C-alpha cells in the first residue's frame, strides 16, 4: 500500500498511485464499461460546493487537435444533494473516495467539511483552490477544510504553484495536487466568439514536469495532474518525485488508455523504481 497522507493521524492508503482528476469521472456513477474503477487507487469526485452552482452560460468547449479548453462553471447540485444521491454508491466502491470540494469561502468550506466528516464513505478531501487566491487566503481555506478531520489534498491552481506550494506544505496540507488546469482561450465553433476556460491535453504536460521538478521535493506527497496521456508520461512523473498521478481528458478521449497506465504504475510500484510515499 502507498500512503498519500503520511502526516495525518489516520492516513490515506491506496493500492495504486492512479486516480481520475476532478471533473472527468462524475460522482462515481460512471458506467463500468466506460471507467474500470478497479484500475484506480482512489476515486476523485466531480467538484462540489456547499451550495448548488449553475452551469456557465454560452459555449463551454472548444478543441484544437487534442487540446481542449473547457468552461463549465463547475455546476453541481450542492453537497447535501450529492451526499444524498451518491454516498451509498461511494461506500460500495473498491477504492477510497476523495471528494473534490470547491474552495468558495472559509465559512462554506468549514460547513461542507464538517458534513463530510460525518460521511463514512469519504476518506479524504481534495480542496480546489481558486486561481486568484493568495497564500494567506489559501491557508485560511485549508484550515477551514481541516475541520473535517479528514486528510486534505490541496489542489493548487497552475498560476499559483510557485506562490502556494511551500506555504501550504508548511501549513499542514497532507498532500499537494499539481495542478488545476491553466487558463486558456480558444475560438468557439462558427461565429460564437472565443471560449475562456481551463486547458486540457498533451500541451499541459511539459508545464507539469516543470512544476514537479521544482516542487516534488517538498516533505509531503505531491500528486501530478495535467496532460498525462500514457504510461511513459505517468512513469516520468514518478521519476521526478510525484507520489501519484491523476489523469484527466484522456478518460473522455480514449478510456482504453487507462489500463496500460495502471499496468505501468503497478510495475513501478512492485519493483520499487520510485519511492511513492514520504
Describe this structure in words.
Mean pLDDT is 94; it is low at 273-278. Helix 3 (135-145) links the parallel strand 8 (124-128) and strand 9 (152-157). An 8-stranded parallel sheet has the order 3-14-13-10-9-8-7-4. Strands 5-6-12-11 form a 4-stranded antiparallel sheet, with no helix packed on it. The protein is built from 8 helices and 14 strands. Helices cover 31% and strands 22% of the residues. 48% of the residues are buried. The protein starts with a strand and ends in an 8-residue tail after the last helix. It has one domain: Aldolase class I (TIM Barrel, Alpha-Beta Barrel), CATH 3.20.20.70. Helix 2 (106-117) packs parallel to helix 3 (135-145). By secondary structure, the protein is of the alpha/beta class. The longest helix has 14 residues, at 79-92. It has helices at 79-92, 106-117, 135-145, 161-171, 205-215, 231-239, 250-253, 258-270; strands spanning 2-3, 13-14, 18-20, 43-44, 61-64, 67-70, 97-102, 124-128, 152-157, 175-180, 183-187, 194-200, 222-225, 244-247.
Helix proportion of residues, in percent?
25-40%
Shape: globular
- Give the helices and strands as they follow along the chain: EEEEEEHEHEHEHEEEHEHEHH
Q: How many structural units, i.e. domains?
A: 1
Measured on Cα atoms, how large is the radius of gyration?
17 Å
Number of helices: 8
> What is the CATH T-level topology?
TIM Barrel
Kindly report the name of the CATH homologous superfamily: Aldolase class I
Mean pLDDT over all positions: 94
Percent of sequence in beta strands: 15-25%
Cα distance spanning the termini = 13 Å
- Could you give the order of strands across the largest sheet? 3-14-13-10-9-8-7-4
Q: The biggest beta sheet, please?
A: 8 strands, parallel
Q: Which CATH top level class fits?
A: Alpha Beta
What is the β-strand count?
Answer: 14
